[in-house]
Amino acid sequence: MNWNPVPGRVMSIGLALALLMAATRFHHFGAATLLPDASLAVFLLAGFYLRRSGLFAIYIAEAALIDYLAIAYGGVSDWCATPAYVFLVPAYASAWYAGVWYARRFRPEWRTVAPLFGGLLAGVSVWFLISNAGFYLFSGYFTDMSWSEYAARVAKYYPPYLWSASAYVALAAIVHALAASTARASQRA
Q: Given phi > 0 = left and psi -120 to 50 = alpha, else beta, which region is 4?
């Protein structure tokens, strides 16, 4: 049984995910008063709930617009705005398709939690590899640094990305389970 959302809910879910990305993308890891960036989780969850490739393009455009506004008007550094920025498209596609992959395996049973977090781990890991390899190769900042030295320097960023994406996805899974439980209870009544 694949996950097939009720058509009327797709727009609500899509809008909620877009708003979550808009509210959190300005800061990668958050702060005491800011939530960490939910973009990775948003792409994974949108892949699960929405799946259509055209919607992926809309989320990519939203992410680029947010980044532009953050740099142009929000005081965020443009250090990451290099030719390597284009690698975020296949990087986020890895998270999106991890969500699509899990949607095909989803069952309303506890045993599908393991594939959920396996897909999350794979999606975040591939995202991290693509985005960082692209940045290393095409940003123009690391011409004198070996790949192993670069990898050692950026490895410390992997756990926060994995942790924040996992937290958002876990919260979404809880909300999903509660909503499904409530729907089943109302159908029985």
A: beta
